[in-house]
Each structure stands twice: as structure tokens, then as C-alpha cells.
Specification:
Helices cover 68% and strands 6% of the residues. It has helices at 2-97, 115-133, 160-169, 176-183, and strands at 139-140, 146-150, 153-157. Residues 191-196 have low confidence and may be disordered.
């Protein structure tokens, strides 16, 4: 009996190995198809995310290019504004210097100067008038001094005494009436003109 049982086991073994092999192949096929079915939506979602990320990258690059071009344009506009402000200041200075009058621009108090600067300009007005009469070019400095360049020499007047000295150095003569007009000003007492 032992031989019969042993021979039956021996006969079942080859079919068992074959069954195991078939089962293994079936399981492999099942796992492959199951994995493919499970990975298909994941792969589709991954492709969609990759495409979305690429689009976001392109949008970010486009936004960066736009920001850079806007920054360049802003810098250009700022330079243009500074240039225009300089031109306007130059025109205003020439307007004041040569006492030009433009249609459509009202004359009035210069609002960009402090009261102290305006008072100083009023004090030096007789000297600027004499320089204009003598056709000598001059400038008002930021501190409201009269500045004249002549023959490579800088002349400045910041008060009445310096104004008289300026006119003397430039060979511009003030009349007796003009000098008397200055005598009414309190600052004139400090002035001691030479040669009169």
C-alpha cells in the first residue's frame, strides 16, 4: 500500500508543478493587467499635471519678461521726467533772468523759493536790474546769490555790500539816485561803498 500511495503522490507532483506554474502565470498576468489598469489613470493625471506645470512655467516666464520690460519702461520714464524737469527749471531760470513774459503763464510770487530767498532776491534786485541793463549775463544761485562768470572769473553777491563790489568789479556804475534808493533799506547801513 505504501507503494500505491507513493506512486499516486509521484504522479500528482508533475501536475502540481504544472498547476503551480499555470497559477503563477495567471497571477502574473492578473497583476500586470491590474497594475496597468490602476496606473493608467495615475499616468493620465501625471501627464495632466506635467502639462499644467509646463503652462504655469511658461506663464511665469511671460510674467517675468513683462515685469522686466515694465521696469525698463519705468526707468526710461523716470529719466525722461528728470530731463524734462531740468529743461523746465532751465526755462524758468531764463524766464526770471531775462524777465521774459509768456502768454498763458501768470506772473506771481515764486512759490518754489522760501521767504528768506525771496527777501534776499528783493534786496539784490537793484543789482540784477543793473546787470540786465548792462547786458551782463548772471544767474540766481539756489541760495539766491547773484553769480556772474566773466573772462573766466566768478563774481558773486549775497548782500548789498557784495552787490556794490560786484558792480564795481564789472565796471557797472550806479547813479546817485539808485544809491539813495538803497539807503532806505536797513541792510544798507552795513554797507560802506568805496569811492563815493
Amino acid at each position: 500500500m505504501a507503494d500505491i500511495t507513493n506512486s499516486q503522490e509521484h504522479q500528482e507532483s508533475p501536475s502540481s508543478k504544472k498547476d503551480i506554474q499555470d497559477l503563477k502565470e495567471d497571477l502574473q498576468t492578473f497583476f500586470k493587467t491590474s497594475m496597468a489598469e490602476l496606473l493608467t489613470p495615475v499616468q493620465a493625471k501625471l501627464d495632466e499635471l506635467t502639462e499644467g506645470l509646463g503652462a504655469a512655467g511658461r506663464a511665469a516666464a511671460s510674467a517675468l519678461d513683462t515685469a522686466e520690460s515694465l521696469q525698463t519702461e519705468v526707468m526710461t520714464l523716470k529719466r525722461s521726467e528728470a530731463l524734462l524737469q531740468t529743461k523746465i527749471s532751465t526755462l524758468e531760470n531764463r524766464w526770471r533772468q531775462f524777465n521774459l513774459k509768456f502768454r498763458g503763464i501768470e506772473e506771481g510770487t515764486e512759490q518754489d523759493l522760501s521767504l528768506e530767498s525771496l527777501e534776499k532776491r528783493r534786496l539784490l534786485k537793484p543789482f540784477s536790474s543793473k546787470l540786465l541793463e548792462a547786458k551782463i549775463r548772471f544767474r540766481w544761485s539756489m541760495t539766491s546769490n547773484i553769480t556772474v562768470y566773466k573772462d573766466g572769473v566768478l563774481f558773486q553777491a549775497s548782500d548789498l555790500k557784495m552787490g556794490l563790489l560786484l558792480l564795481k568789479n564789472l565796471n557797472v556804475v550806479m547813479t546817485q539816485e539808485e544809491t539813495e534808493a538803497l539807503q532806505g533799506h536797513p541792510a544798507f547801513e552795513e554797507v560802506q561803498p568805496s569811492g563815493e
